């Protein structure tokens, strides 16, 4: 039974890696071939697809039972998760306007540290002391890098740290919603409720930061209709990313998820795929 559970977890992690890499490559293709420079709008498309696919999977295909929101507190937790996710994406993109890519990557490497801290204060979950000890060199390295960075910008650094903390907080919050007794949701239902809220939060950011993006997308589609199919496939693959993200969190832990993100590549985590999109924009 333990071997079966272990193989199932390995399969989940492999699916998570594969779908993340697929989104990353598609983002790169959209940027290289179409000059599509709108990561926040693209994330909103991803969340829209997650809403639709989750509803089809639960309400039509009956893959899992439909779970209702049981309390205002549970609704507040889901809304907070959605907001924190949106903050991580938007702040991550804003920070790249002020800081070089290498430095944002260094700051992002502290995500497991923030995850461990949030998990301790919010769930009273203590990791082994060796785990905390292993995270100290990362934080120390970022402090030294901040002092020696020639392009250091205080506002950009604060926004970058906030984005990093938001990614960590998101992992902890989703872990609570997936495992807490009395308010536990399965992964599909959590995505069903979280994704539409994220669309609502991302919409004003898209309209403000990526002006006339819908008109530009339609103009690109008139020149080459294949971009619509790429966007649809990209958004569909993002559903797999988010669903496996929740499943990996449920079957391992929030801290494990963040360590896995760093051990594979800092840019393979879902929010980081959006940042990778922006990094390329900076060099155009």
From TrEMBL:
SUPFAM superfamilies: Multidrug resistance efflux transporter EmrE. Residues 12-259 form the Sugar phosphate transporter domain. One of its GO terms (cellular component) is membrane. Keywords: Membrane, Transmembrane, Transmembrane helix. Pfam families: TPT. It is a multi-pass membrane protein. It is found in: Membrane. InterPro entries: EmrE-like, Sugar_P_trans_dom, TPT_transporter. The chain crosses the membrane at residues 7-26, 38-61, 73-91, 103-122, 129-146, 152-169, 190-207, 227-248. This is Sugar phosphate transporter domain-containing protein.
């Amino acid at each position: 039974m333990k071997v079966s559970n272990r193989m199932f977890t390995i399969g989940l992690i492999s699916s998570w890696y594969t779908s993340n890499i697929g989104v990353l490559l598609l983002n790169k293709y959209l940027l290289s071939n179409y000059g599509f420079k709108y990561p926040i709008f693209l994330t909103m498309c991803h969340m829209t697809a997650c809403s639709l696919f989750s509803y089809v999977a639960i309400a039509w295909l009956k893959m899992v039972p439909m779970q209702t929101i049981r309390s205002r507190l549970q609704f507040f937790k889901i809304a907070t998760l959605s907001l924190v996710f949106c903050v991580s994406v938007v702040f991550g993109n804003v920070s790249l306007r002020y800081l070089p890519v290498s430095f944002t990557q260094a700051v992002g490497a502290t995500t497991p540290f923030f995850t461990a801290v949030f998990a301790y204060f919010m769930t009273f979950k203590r990791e082994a002391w060796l785990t905390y000890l292993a995270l100290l060199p990362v934080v120390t390295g970022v402090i030294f890098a901040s002092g020696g960075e020639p392009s250091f910008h205080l506002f950009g650094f604060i926004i970058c740290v906030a984005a990093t903390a938001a990614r960590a907080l998101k992992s902890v919050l989703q872990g609570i919603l997936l495992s807490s007794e009395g308010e536990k949701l399965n992964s599909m239902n959590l995505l069903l409720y979280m994704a539409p809220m994220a669309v609502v939060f991302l919409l004003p950011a898209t309209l403000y930061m990526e002006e006339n993006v819908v008109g530009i997308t339609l103009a690109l589609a008139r020149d080459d209709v294949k971009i619509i199919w790429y966007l649809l496939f990209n958004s569909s693959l993002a559903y797999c990313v988010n669903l496996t993200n929740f499943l990996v969190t449920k079957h391992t832990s929030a801290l494990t998820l963040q360590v896995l993100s760093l051990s594979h590549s800092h840019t393979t985590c879902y929010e980081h795929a959006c940042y990778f999109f922006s990094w390329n924009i900076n060099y155009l």
